Amino acid sequence: MSGKEPFTLRWGILATGGIAKKFTTDLLIPPSTRSVTDIQHVLSAAASSTSVSRAQEFLTSVNAPASAKPHGSYAALAADPSVDIIYIATPHSHHYANARLCLEAGKSVLCEKPFTVNAAQAEVLVRIAREKGVFLMEAVWTRFFPIAREIRGFVAGGGLGEVKRVWADLSFWNDVEREFGEKGEHRMVNMDLAGGALLDLGIYSLTWIFQILYHIQPPSSRTAPITASAITKYHLTGCDETTSVLLTFPSTGAQGIATTSIRVSSAATSAPTDPVRIQGTHGDLTVAFPPYRPWQYTLSPAESASRGKLADWDAQTVEREIPGGGMGMFWEADECARCIRDGKLESEVMGWEESLEIMRVMDKVRKDGGVIYSDELESVKYP
Ligand SMILES: NC(=O)C1=CN([C@@H]2O[C@H](COP(=O)(O)OP(=O)(O)OC[C@H]3O[C@@H](n4cnc5c(N)ncnc54)[C@H](OP(=O)(O)O)[C@@H]3O)[C@@H](O)[C@H]2O)C=CC1
Ligand SMILES: O=C1OC[C@@H](O)[C@H](O)[C@H]1O
């Protein structure tokens, strides 16, 4: 791209909560701080479902440029001609309707995880994106970290030999009643907002398993896993509190063990065990906490008394810093810009079929464990 003007992507932010603020702050970090020169981002607008003044407060809080417009409704944002792509940062329950509103208005969409409440809703979004010829991606930011790409590349290149098993956990210890309220209104546990450990945190455990046992496999081996699972419900609301999923990928026989909880922690001790463990015939690669924002991995060669070490590498720990003082959410934004510049409707890193496959796993786990949201939340009815 040298000598050419960078491609500019104009963003609208839908919702003004916690992650909207973090994402937008990252979006405003100059791409040059991460050695990116081929694309750039402009913050054109933000919308609050509450009021224009709330949207303006949000823009002020992230030091938005004065040209960024506040909107008092999501519909007004979807109709804003100064916006190319909309980042959706509402609770899970609202992703389907909000994304559909934007896609039908001809906007590209980056939608927070989980894509939707269930696979049926995600399928509708994909169909509309295809019909409208606009870009659509689930915002699984973890996948776009250079260290995540490096890990995928190492494993795909046979660095671990044949991968047989991946363990992945994302659990946060919480004093659930104190932190999320006795009434269960907080989005983490609220059934009316499609809360629960699986859709909020377990999706990261599944994404690590899918990155290795599905994504980097040759296309003919990317088959749906067979799953068995267990759910323990949160007594106050009935959402899932602790969930474990065992996945077998039929084309390779490799197994994934995905766990999540809002009662125990992936990193409770002063010397926590790495929550992601990729195990191959030549050794293990483990990823340090937090697995959604990877920064360190460790390689440990397998050694046996009779055969010694099969790996051509030694034990080592690798660290990669996140440049520019941000969270690392800018890398997924850069991916959106490059895909749209290149006329792609979906990303190869977080493609539609893979998002759908992960949604199908979560659907089955919830069904088997008896965690079903209201008919309205599970429906594809719109509006
Ligand atoms: N990638 C990541 O690391 C993270 C992703 N997330 C994901 O981001 C999404 C939002 O999470 P988070 O920002 O923590 O949530 P918050 O509760 O902090 O914010 C949600 C925002 O959505 C809007 N909203 C619209 N309708 C509702 C409603 N009925 N109830 C509550 N809020 C509503 C509100 O903005 P307004 O009133 O202005 O319209 C609100 O501020 C979730 O999908 C979550 O899984 C969350 C945390 C981290
Ligand atoms: O997506 C997420 O990742 C980080 C967690 O802190 C947060 O609860 C979750 O929504």
From TrEMBL:
Keywords: Oxidoreductase. The keyword Oxidoreductase applies. Residues 149-285 form the GFO/IDH/MocA-like oxidoreductase domain. It is an enzyme of class 1 (oxidoreductase). InterPro entries: Gfo/Idh/MocA-like_OxRdtase_N (IPR000683), Gfo/Idh/MocA_domain (IPR050984), GFO_IDH_MocA-like_dom (IPR055170), NAD(P)-bd_dom_sf (IPR036291). The keyword Oxidoreductase applies. It comes from the Eukaryota. Its EC number is 1.1.1.179. GO terms for molecular function: D-xylose 1-dehydrogenase (NADP+) activity; nucleotide binding. It holds the Pfam family GFO_IDH_MocA_C3. Residues 10-138 form the Gfo/Idh/MocA-like oxidoreductase N-terminal domain. Belongs to the Gfo/Idh/MocA family. This is D-xylose 1-dehydrogenase (NADP(+), D-xylono-1,5-lactone-forming). It comes from Aaosphaeria arxii CBS 175.79.
